[in-house]
Design a protein that fits this description.
330 residues, Peroxisomal Thiolase, Chain A, domain 1, binds coenzyme A, 10 helices
């Protein structure tokens, strides 16, 4: 790519998403023997159902479908991609990266490809990294994906966690543009909160499980996570507005991480945004971790809600803790 004196923005040229076929309703969970109810899950989280990846359907498979749709929407051929960044905390394998597996499934080779693991903030982190590559001139066309098969690491006997998550993927194609695009990115992390939301097994820590563990599973102190998430998201949306010298009334859409409707409503209140200007998919998708923001964005674009030139604030919060925002003109 040639460098010019004009500022280079990373503009979203196309979006895509994919949800596995199998749908699990709250009542289905009850039928599976989970001690819960549709009333409890709906009133505490806003979730009514989630999608579950089929046996043998991997994170890279979900990523591939979302990517093909994003590439088609952008009118970009896979050969033209300079960089693939996949946000995921449920990679197909320990290595190689899901991004390289996706690259091969897209039928190309040679371009840069790597994963970013920032738990539920994976897509926001991946988008931020991609933005930096474009702004620096190191890449002109980037495929950014958030893809997860989080249900693979749930303990279906743990009602505190198993009702919350689902599988899915979303993708965007970013292109260098002199007019407009991503205006700012802000990322944060606090590793001191590791034990509040985590999966405590791994390569270096070892795969053995202690006497309390049924297996490789997500563990969460829901109440603490809830409180911290609301505070962190309040502060990160304020930070984005201040950095851009914008009043909250300038925002057209909030595209939040879809973990819990009450968390989303709290952020909307902070921004004085009516829920009509907030993209909500958590009711149908559950929390798809890195998949949630690009899934919501794609739905908003394809339904015609989000229009060219509008100002969008994307945000996410998750394990680490890691959180962040992206402000962009679509
Ligand atoms: N069905 C029925 N009852 C359940 C339940 C379920 N699925 N899960 C928990 N309960 C019970 C608890 O055991 C507790 O019972 P007790 O009072 O007898 O001890 C009661 O419901 C209240 O639990 P509590 O954890 O205080 O509920 P809450 O209002 O905080 O809601 C969450 C729980 C998980 C929905 C909420 O804390 C949350 O959404 N946290 C953030 C989670 C999140 O977003 N994580 C991902 C971030 S990326």
């Amino acid at each position: 790519m040639s460098h010019t004196s004009n500022p280079v923005f990373a503009r979203i040229a196309g979006t895509g998403s994919y949800l596995p076929q199998q749908v699990l309703s709250n009542d289905d969970l009850v039928k599976r023997g989970v001690e819960t109810s549709d009333e409890w899950i709906t009133s505490r989280t806003g979730i009514r159902q989630r999608h579950i990846a089929a046996e043998g359907e991997l994170t890279s498979d979900l990523a591939l479908q979302a990517s093909l749709r994003a590439l088609e929407a952008a009118g970009v051929a896979a050969e033209d991609i300079d960089l693939i960044v996949v946000g995921t905390t449920t990679p197909d394998l320990i290595f190689p990266s899901t991004a390289t597996i996706l690259q091969h499934k897209l039928g190309v080779a040679g371009c840069m490809a790597f994963d970013v693991n920032a738990a539920c903030s994976g897509f926001i982190y991946a988008l931020t990294v991609a933005d930096k590559f474009i702004r620096s001139g190191a890449a002109g066309t980037v495929l950014v994906v958030g893809a997860e098969t989080l249900t693979r690491m749930l303990d279906w006997n743990d009602r505190n966690t198993c009702v919350l998550f689902g599988d899915g993927a979303g993708a965007v194609v970013l292109k260098a543009d002199h007019e407009t695009g991503i205006l700012s990115t802000h990322m944060h992390a606090d590793g001191g909160k590791k034990d509040l939301l985590w999966n405590p097994v791994g390569v270096s820590a070892g795969f053995k499980v202690d006497e309390h563990n049924a297996g490789v599973r997500v563990q969460m102190a829901g109440n603490d996570v809830f409180k911290y998430a609301v505070k962190a998201l309040d502060s990160v949306v304020d930070e984005a507005l201040v950095a851009n010298g914008l009043d909250k009334s300038a925002l057209d859409w909030l595209v939040p991480h879809q973990a819990n409707l009450r968390i989303i409503e709290a952020t909307a209140r902070r921004l004085d945004m009516p829920m009509e200007r907030v993209i909500v998919t958590v009711d149908r998708h559950g929390n798809t971790s890195s998949g949630s923001v690009p899934l919501a964005l794609d739905e908003a674009v394809r339904s015609g809600k989000v229009q060219h030139g509008q100002l969008l604030l994307l945000e996410a919060f998750g394990g680490g803790f890691a959180w962040g925002s992206v402000l962009l003109r679509y």
